[in-house]
Design a protein that fits this description.
- Residues 216-259 form the Flagellar basal-body/hook protein C-terminal domain.
- By secondary structure, this protein is α+β, with helices and mostly antiparallel strands.
- The protein has two domains: 3-79 and 238-263, no CATH class; 85-220, no CATH class.
- The chain contains four helices and 20 strands.
- The protein has helices at 3-27, 44-53, 142-147, 226-259, and strands spanning 37-38, 41-42, 72-73, 77-78, 85-87, 94-97, 101-107, 113-118, 123-125, 131-133, 138-139, 163-164, 169-172, 175-179, 182-184, 191-195, 198-201, 208-209, 213-216, 218-220.
- Strands 7, 8, 11, 15 and 18 form a five-stranded antiparallel beta sheet that branches. A three-stranded antiparallel beta sheet has the order 12-13-14, with no helix packed on it. It has a two-stranded antiparallel ribbon with strand order 1-4.
- A hairpin with a 4-residue loop joins strand 12 (163-164) and strand 13 (169-172).
Amino acid sequence: MVKGLYTAYTGMINQQNRLDVITNNLANSATTGYKKEGTTSQTFKDVLAYKIKDSSEYNISRPLGTMSMGVKIGENYTDYGQGAFRVTDNDLDLALDGDGFFAISFTGKNGETSVKYTRDGSFTMNKDGYLVTKDGDFVLNQNGAMNSNANSRIQLDPNAEVKIDASGNIYQNNQFVAQIGVADFPDYNYIEKYGENLYQLAQGGTIQESTAFVNQGILETSNVNVVSEMVEMIEISRAYESNQKLIQTIDGTLDTAVNQLGKV
């Protein structure tokens, strides 16, 4: 076995994984409230050191050949950093300043309803006066957000002006109507991307009150820096080409060893 071939191969696979994540970030750079993703990887020596200290496999014979001789692709992660604000002057456009997520009553294709979370505050009002997302899912009030109650919806008067303060309290005709449901999580490792710019709570995760301020007439843009993502894409392309050239070089060396040295 020529180990250099496998090392270069794992390098190319790792760069392809990085490229997939970056292209997804760039595709969502204009998506309201989108949080960019990143990748991790481990070298051979890091994995070997971990295996040596892993007491869970004590006295279990593990040949070194079961480990990759190159780069090991790690887990992807999400950067929950604050995005920039964009003023829209739309009364139903909301942005969170701080840690937290809007709670949404999401109905899947199978008709099952569950609570999801999002940073996208581009809300609207349906014909019945309910506050909904642009996809038609109901926005929950604070009780629904904290108790994961998908039926705690917010109904407004379509003919009255809507005013929302920094705590998410909604007023119409100088009367309190409801409070926007905003929840946070003590450990973000327990939330996962669901799709459609939504997040869901994983098993074992807990909810806590958010300290974020609600801004009316403003939307939070994605936290993707297009320039840095493009620079990293160029870096990935060059690293991929380097691994490709390494494979070509080793292939040429093997060709010489097999087809020419044997003739001498």
